[in-house]
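Deviation from plan, reported transparently: manganese (II) ion complex.
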Amino acid sequence: MDYEPVIGLEVHAQIHTASKMFCSCPVVEDTGDLEPNTYVCPVCTAMPGTLPVINRRAVEMTLMTGLALNCKIPPVSRFARKSYFYPDLPKGYQISQLALPFGVNGYLEIETGAGPRRIGINNVHLEEDTGKLYHVGSVSLVDFNRAGVPLIEIVSEPDMRSVEEVHAYATKLRAILVYLGVNPGDMEKGVMRFEASVSVRPVGSDALNPRHEIKNLNSFRALTRATAYEIAHQIEVLENGSHVLQQTMGWDEERGMTYVQRSKEYAEDYRYFPEPDLPPLEVGREWVEQLRAQLPELPETKRARFVADYGLSDYDAEVLVADKGVANYYEAAVAAAANKADSKTVANWVTGALFRLMKETGKGIGAVLVSPQALVELIGLVKDDTINLNIGKEVLEEMFASGLDARQIIEERGLAQISDTAALEKIVAQVLEENPEQVSKYLGGKAQIIGWLMGQVMKATQGKANPQVVRELLQVQLAARRG
Ligand code: ZN
Ligand code: MN
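Because the crystal trials were delayed, the predicted structure below was used instead.
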């Protein structure tokens, strides 16, 4: 039998406001070396008698996220208590939302191999983050620096049908959150966390079968691996004539498999009820329209503009806008270029040579030492034949490593291109003299030998010869030998 997976995603994203969700403690970036329990107060450590106060900016960021995800914004919203006991949750409940979230019924459009697809967004709501537990030998320690940091939760409909769609959805959602300024998107710092609900069913069925909810997936890699594992595992269970139970799963990164944490809890288990310490919030239409007007240019719109304004292919535009920092870098480079027609060349350098160096070194665009202006200068030196393309890529590598500019490197290393015809003529003649066998093969009709001969000339000039001039000289001298 053929099966299809049914996948929904819950995404938690910290909102990097100046202060926490319900108190005035600062939201501090988790660099891993913060002194524990230094950014805390009686409110976020749940001292008796303290009361929460709503962070207006966090609400605005949530509403803007809802708008960016095409959600309806209900006129009244309300916080709710979600009760559960865990030592990283000092109140014994989390202030969250259930019946009246800030955004409902939206969608996110993703690109797939088979064209665009809409993934439904059930709701966007606002809650508070928990503290962090550290397990040291037989004791556990708790750090409340993170407790009370505003947390946005985006709940999709179970609309994804493959691991590829899950990846496309998560990537696009991350980009939108970064564009909105919700947080910087650093997965390794835990500012975004995924939970995937996975079930499978026979193709053609529209049943929603009991699902496995995989918790705490903190990277794209964990998300896609865990989802792929669950799909294969559940198909195997069904094929063996057994059935899948509704369960909450953990993900074992090392063993590459999921494991049962507990039988799934249902909303009833959390004893949700309206938060008595906070009033319902009226979300005025004027406020919503003001926020809509403040929405920045989002990846989708930017992509269309890059295609229209810079003549880029859909693919190049998509790759450039996927990271807001890269998109800004690219636009700064195009602005620095003398000629707007260079925008495509600039895109090729960024998505080609520069991306390769970033990938090899694991550096994000923010850590790249080559400024957009310096890149454009290098491109100009290739364009005006000061250096050839291959040397240009070498120079970029050195600029990337040292931060020096192209002219300095070319001068110090004597890389300027040899276009001097007289000098090259001699070298070409010598190469032909030294390789009579290849020359006669060429003259005998093996035209592609010219590539090998070019290679010899480039070698003799340490790669610095102007390849067009070399090709022309070879053609002339070989023709002469033909007689
Ligand atoms: Zn506090
Ligand atoms: Mn949550």
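The first helix runs from residue 56 to 68. We consider this an acceptable substitute for the interim report.
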